[in-house]
Design goal:
The complex is a heterodimer. Chain A is built from twelve helices and eight strands. Chain A is of the alpha/beta class. Chain A has a domain of 212 residues: Thiamin diphosphate (ThDP)-binding fold, Pyr/PP domains (Rossmann fold). In chain A, the strands form two sheets. Chain A has a six-stranded parallel beta sheet with strand order 2-1-3-4-8-7, with helices on both faces. In chain A, strands 5-6 form a two-stranded antiparallel ribbon. In chain A, helix 7 links the parallel strand 3 and strand 4. By secondary structure, chain B is an alpha/beta fold. Chain B has three domains: 95 residues, Beta Barrel (OB fold (Dihydrolipoamide Acetyltransferase, E2P)); 184 residues, Thiamin diphosphate (ThDP)-binding fold, Pyr/PP domains (Rossmann fold, 3-Layer(aba) Sandwich), CATH 3.40.50; 127 residues, Rossmann fold, CATH 3.40.50.920. In chain B, the strands form five sheets. Chain B has a seven-stranded mixed beta sheet with strand order 11-10-12-13-15-14-20, sandwiched between helices. Classes of the chains: A alpha/beta, B alpha/beta. The interface between A and B is large, with 55 and 60 residues. Bound molecules: thiamine diphosphate (TPP) and magnesium ion. The site of magnesium ion has 6 residues of chain A, from strand 5. Chain A: GO terms for molecular function: pyruvate dehydrogenase (acetyl-transferring) activity. Chain A: It catalyses: N(6)-[(R)-lipoyl]-L-lysyl-[protein] + pyruvate + H(+) = N(6)-[(R)-S(8)-acetyldihydrolipoyl]-L-lysyl-[protein] + CO2. Chain A: Its cofactor is thiamine diphosphate. Chain A: Pfam families: E1_dh.
Chain lengths: 342, 470
């Protein structure tokens, strides 16, 4: 997907400074486009929820786009990816079809799970996206199992296992860390640290604040990364990915990010100030930052970026259209997919 | 074309809300992302952000309006360059469109047909026939939601006993993900209203340990789905200790939270744990329906010296009932309530399905079938006497539960009737239960997966050998 970047993923950069010119224009365009697609997709999902076309829980990824887009830039064909319920961005970043994702949100037959999974539960064997899990922390042992399979099959793949800051307090996370370190499993643990687990800030939930050190007792190296800047995510995570690909066992990234919207659609977000949100939006927005960089450095001109905006809007428009027109699943689907015929 | 601003759905269970106030006036320019109004759901006041930009041409629903249906037009947004004439047409168009669209997919809450919560029948009719020990009657009642009743029960018990404390995710500062612990932090402080990290196995076990030390924890699971993370502590530590200690150490603890399906939250977030926990000796299991049940039984659960699993229901939280207005209203654990007297068939249910049975009984009455409705209230210990007394009168039983049929509460009641009322049965005991599948997300499938009042009616007709009407 990001061919030119992929080859350089393992070249270790020690300087933290990020220079847009060290990335190929094609890569930069891809990052921009991917983040924008997620942003516009999520805005539209929020709108469809308000119209009653999407129901239940719907956790938007707005603000966190640089995290998955940056890490996917380091992924190779054959790697695995797994996350929690805040999963729309991950699916789009792995190249899953926006139509199929949106139609799943509306609960229609054209959705990735035929409308039976909804926002939190989608999967793609083809893209090696393994869900889409609703139980906080549960994806961590599952991702560790995916890494186990990579090692078992000696296929050279690694697992990108995403979870929230809130999830780092679940016991099963540490049971996983122990096994992964013990058996040197190829897994990059990615904490998407958006500062809150629902209404509880990291400070109120996690002793000894620095989440990157949560694997220290198991000898798992960890580091913090600025998750609001896609180029810094790539630079910062490259070391982790190299470490894991090199057969050295797991690595833990504490990627600092922020969600602009409420936890899910019904959260009035009274636990943080409006200033805090608007400051992040105006000063650290991942899309604005990249855009500014691209224009200032003369990588692209305004017109080119406008074109991308337009194309993305069209894709999202088509996805929304498809999601509204795809029929509801046939009632007979209620009784299918419970067990595989054996 | 001017754009209609529609009343948004702001939570999984919202069908209508209050448009508390507009933050923009007619004529104001609006940018995408601007907060334009405040909307109250049953849980919270939410900010409503604009998705489109333009000028607020007309406010169709003024601030302070209650009961605004989701998707009803509340205002008109004019795009750049649009004028008065465009506005008039748009207002007309909006006025012709009343309430939510009717096609199935656009009504998110369709899975819950507003199951017209009947006010809890005042106990008067229950006096017609004498129970072995009838519930006392009350003169005055107050109208309360299940949510308020649960909160009051906890607050009263916390006032009464300093050893009672409540613990769980978002229970303190956020006042509960479903607002059940509203006001408790303010009254009791953070020593007794404790926010935990997301760590169910940890805090459930910690609660059991504190109960060994004779504190009386109320452990809230944000929903019972997450109690599965902690089920080992509930069963192996809480339920079995008294026995393993030869009676020397027990554990007065309440595990509570919403159980069963909410609305459109899919398989991992919608399942009924009634039969799971009712299976376990050493636990008491309660599943209230009305606000009175919730209040009286939660108080009893907190006072009980045993571990109690208290299964609430999210969809019932906002429903209101009459609650006896007496000091210290406590109901006995292990005692069912006959909600409606009848002679032809007994409908046995718990939690939200009691409402379905009341609705079904009403329909059946119109067809000349007199149904008795038993609200189990407690699942373990099960009030077998009340069930059997009814069966021996009606000779026909339909059990109703939201959970899966296999090894469910209905199966247990069927077996009870076989063992203890076989000679009285005029028809096989029949079960109405949730479809034997993980809960689907799609609106149409979810509705098919959950028992509906019509199925209860159908089952009752079948055991009465009555042909279906209409
Ligand atoms: C085991 C479990 N407990 C509680 C919940 C309810 N819940 C859903 S998301 C969430 C907060 C998680 O926060 P975090 O891990 O930081 O992820 P974020 O939502 O910020 O992406 C909670 C408590 C759940 N889904 N699973
Ligand atoms: Mg978080």
């Amino acid at each position: 997907m990001v061919a030119s970047r992929r080859d350089r993923a393992s070249s270790k950069d020690s300087e933290p400074a990020v220079d847009a010119h060290r990335f190929e224009p094609a890569d930069l365009e891809h990052y921009y486009r991917s983040m924008l697609l997620i942003r516009r997709f999520e805005e539209r999902a929020g709108q469809l929820y308000g119209m009653g076309l999407i129901g239940g829980f719907c956790h938007l990824y707005i603000g966190q786009e640089a995290v998955v887009v940056g890490l996917q830039a380091l992924a190779r064909e054959g790697d695995s990816i797994i996350t929690s319920y805040r999963d729309h961005g991950h699916m789009l970043a792995t190249g899953m079809d926006p139509k199929g994702v949106m139609a799943e949100l509306t609960g229609r037959i054209g959705g990735y799970s035929k409308g039976k999974g909804g926002s939190m539960h989608m999967f793609s064997r083809e893209k090696r996206f393994f869900g889409g899990h609703g139980i906080v922390g549960a994806a961590v042992p599952l991702g560790t199992g995916l890494a186990f399979a990579h090692q078992y099959n000696e296929d050279g793949g690694i697992c990108f296992c995403y979870f929230g800051d809130g999830a780092t307090n679940q016991g099963q996370v540490y049971e996983s860390f122990n096994m992964a370190a013990l058996w040197k499993l190829p897994v990059v643990y990615v904490i998407e640290n958006n500062r809150y687990g629902m209404g509880t800030s990291v400070e109120r939930a996690a002793a000894a604040g620095d989440l990157s050190q949560r694997g220290a007792a198991y000898g798992i190296p960890g580091k913090g990364v600025n998750g609001m800047n896609v180029l810094e995510v790539i630079e910062g995570a490259a070391e982790a990915v190299d470490h894991v690909r090199g057969g050295n066992g797991p690595y833990l990234l504490d990627v600092k990010t922020y969600r602009y919207r409420g936890h899910s659609m019904s959260d009035p977000a009274k636990y943080r100030s409006k200033d805090e949100v608007s400051k992040m939006r105006s000063e650290s927005d991942p899309i604005d930052q990249l855009k500014k960089r691209l224009l200032e450095d003369g990588v692209f001109d305004e017109a080119h970026l406008k074109d991308i905006d337009k194309q993305v809007k069209e894709i999202v428009g088509e996805a929304a259209e498809f999601a509204q027109n795809s029929p509801e699943p046939d009632p007979a689907e209620l009784w299918t997919d419970i067990l595989v015929d054996a | 074309m001017p754009t209609q601003i529609l009343m948004p759905a702001l939570s999984p269970t919202m069908e209508e809300g209050t448009l508390a106030r507009w933050l923009k006036a007619e004529g104001d320019t609006i940018e995408a992302g601007d907060v334009i109004a405040e909307i109250e759901t049953d849980k919270a006041t939410m900010e409503f952000e604009a998705v489109d930009e333009g000028v607020l041409g007309k406010i169709l629903v003024p601030g302070g309006t209650d009961g605004v249906k989701v998707n009803q037009p509340i205002g008109i947004l004019l795009a750049e360059g649009e004028d008065e004439s465009a506005l008039e047409d748009a207002v007309k168009a909006a006025e012709s469109k009343s309430g939510p669209k009717s096609e199935p997919a656009s009504a998110p809450a369709e899975a819950e047909p507003p199951s017209s919560p009947k006010p809890e029948a005042a106990p008067a009719p229950a006096q017609e026939e004498s129970d072995e020990d009838p519930e006392p009657t009350y003169d005055s009642f107050k109208r309360q939601s299940v949510r308020e009743a649960l909160r009051d029960a906890m607050a009263e018990e916390m006032r009464r006993d300093p050893d009672v404390f409540v613990m769980g995710e978002e229970v303190a500062q956020y006042e509960g993900a479903y607002k059940i612990t509203q006001g408790l932090l303010a009254e009791f402080g953070d020593k007794r209203v404790v926010d935990t990290p997301i760590t169910e196995m940890g805090f459930a076990g910690l609660g059991v340990g504190a109960a060994f030390a004779q504190l009386k924890p109320i452990v809230e699971f944000m929903t019972f789905n997450f109690s599965m993370q902690a089920i080992d502590q509930i069963i192996n530590s809480a339920a079995k200790t008294l026995y393993m200690a030869g009676g020397k150490m027990g554990c007065p603890i309440v595990f509570r939270g919403p159980n069963g399906a909410a609305a459109r939250v899919a398989a991992q977030h919608s399942q009924c744990y009634a039969s799971w926990y009712a299976h376990v000796p050493g636990l008491k299991v309660i599943a209230p329906w009305s606000a009175a049940d919730a209040k009286g039984l939660l108080k009893a659960a907190i006072r009980d010296p045993n571990p109690v699993v208290f299964l609430e229901n999210e969809i019932l939280y906002g429903q209101t009932f009459d609650v006896p207005d007496v000091e210290d209203f406590v109901l006995p654990i292990g005692k069912a309530k006959v909600e409606r007297r009848g002679t032809d068939v007994t409908l046995v249910a718990f939690s939200r399905m009691v409402g379905h049975c009341m609705e079904a009984a009403e329909t059946l009455a119109g067809e000349g079938i007199s149904a008795e409705v038993i609200n189990l209230r407690t699942l373990r210990p099960l009030d077998t006497a009340t069930i059997l007394r009814s069966v021996r009168k009606t000779n026909r039983v339909v059990t109703v539960e939201e959970g899966w049929p296999f090894a469910g509460i209905g199966a247990e009641i069927g077996q009870l009737c076989m063992e203890q009322a076989f000679d009285w049965l005029d028809a096989p005991v029949t079960r109405v239960a949730g479809a034997d599948v993980p809960m689907p997300y799609a609106a149409n499938l979810e509705k098919l997966a959950l028992p509906q009042p019509a199925q209860v009616v159908e089952a009752a007709r079948a055991v009465c050998y009555a042909s279906s009407q209409g």
